[in-house]
Prior knowledge:
Elements lengths: L6 E5 L2 H13 L6 E5 L6 H12 L13 E4 L8 E5 L6 H6 L8 E5 L11 E8 L17 E9 L4
Parallel strand pairs: 2-5, 2-6, 4-5
Antiparallel strand pairs: 1-7, 3-4, 6-7
Helix pairs in contact: 1-2
Amino acid sequence: MPEHLLGRHEISTSAAMEQLGMSMGRGLAAGDVVVLTGPLGAGKTTLTRGIAEGLGVRGPVQSPTFVIARTHPSIVGGAPLVHADAYRLGDAAELEDLDLDLDGSVTIIEWGRGLVDQIADAWWDIEIERPIGEADDPENLDLDAPRTVVVTRHTQGGL
């Protein structure tokens, strides 16, 4: 991922979220691991759709919540995309049991914070923040409400 994408990004629409993902995807390669964190409806899958387009992989990209992981092969001769969801996993051992091809793929793990450090030496951490809805309905939010995307790089033993 290009270094200029590190830091905070203010995203105003879902189209802008996909565009950010495309920029990220163009700079990712086999062996890159990306952890996506954010509340439900924040735009994790939308960002992943953009990354997939930037990588040139076969879609459609959908949330892997119920299948745990999906593999999208490259249509341009590059690395495949593995899109996993760790939300329902109990611990890093369950993530490791998925036998993801971390070296041969670009791997995106939603809800993987605190788990991925057990299976990868380095990873990109992307946190998506969004305003919450009314106190009685936190999911009541316009899909194009502004988001803040924070991109950091982590390695075992520090940043």
